[in-house]
Amino acid sequence: MGLLREQQAAHFADVSGAECAFTLPVSDRLVTRLIAPRVPASWPIREVEVRAAAGNQLAVRLRLARASFLPAVTIRLAIEQQPLLPLSPVLVLRIVSEGFAWLAGTTLRFLQVLPQGLRLDGDRLYVDVAALLERYGAAGALHHLTSLELTTTEGRIVVAARATIPREALSQT
C-alpha cells in the first residue's frame, strides 16, 4: 500500500498515459458487509441487507432498531440511470416495490436524513458517486474514471469502469 500511496501523491506520474477497463462482479454478501458498518448509529435502522436480482434490480432489506417487533421492510429498486462522467456522477434508482412503493417511500422518509451522497426525491433515490468517494477519502479516483456502469445479475452487482491516467500527469510532478 505504501507504493500505491506514493504514486497517488505523485499523481501516478510513473504510469501516465495508462488506460484500464475492468468488470468487477461483487457478491451480495460483500456489498452488505461494506454497507452495514457504515450505517450511522443515529439512524433508526439496525440492519441493512442488499440482494441483487437479474435485470438491474436490487432488494434492500431494512430492519428498524426501535420497533424490533415489526418485520423487516424490503424495498425493491431498479437502476434507472447510470452516472454520466464527469458531468453527472449520479446513479439513479427507482423504487419499484410491487404495490408497496408508498410504504417503501414512507420507510425511507422515516429515516429523515439519509447519509451524505444519498437523496430521496419521490420514488427516486439519487446516489452521488462523487460525494460517496469523497466521504471515504477516495475523491481522487473520480478524476481518473471515464465511465462507470452498475448492472446486476442474480446475487451480484456488476461494476464496469474505464479509467485513465492522463499523460499530463508526468508534468505535475
- Beta-strand residue fraction: 35-45%
Helix/strand class: alpha+beta
Overall 3D shape:
globular
User: Distance between the terminal alpha carbons, to the nearest Å?
Assistant: 20 Å
Fraction of helical residues: 10-25%
Strand order in the largest sheet = 2-3-4-5-7-6
User: Whole-number radius of gyration?
Assistant: 18 Å
Oligomer: single chain
- Low-pLDDT stretches: 169-173
Number of strands: 9
Report on this model:
This protein has 173 residues and is an alpha+beta fold. The protein is built from four helices and nine strands; from the N terminus they run αβαββββαββαββ. The chain has a six-stranded antiparallel sheet. It is globular and about 55 Å long. The two termini are 20 Å apart.
SSE layout:
Blueprint: H1 2-9, E1 19-27, H2 28-35, E2 45-53, E3 57-64, E4 73-81, E5 90-95, H3 101-110, E6 118-121, E7 124-128, H4 129-135, E8 145-153, E9 156-164
Antiparallel strand pairs: 1-9, 2-3, 3-4, 4-5, 5-7, 6-7, 8-9
Structure, briefly:
This protein is of the alpha+beta class.
How would you describe this structure in keywords?
173 residues; alpha+beta; six-stranded antiparallel β-sheet; three-stranded antiparallel β-sheet; 4 helices; 19% helix; disordered C terminus
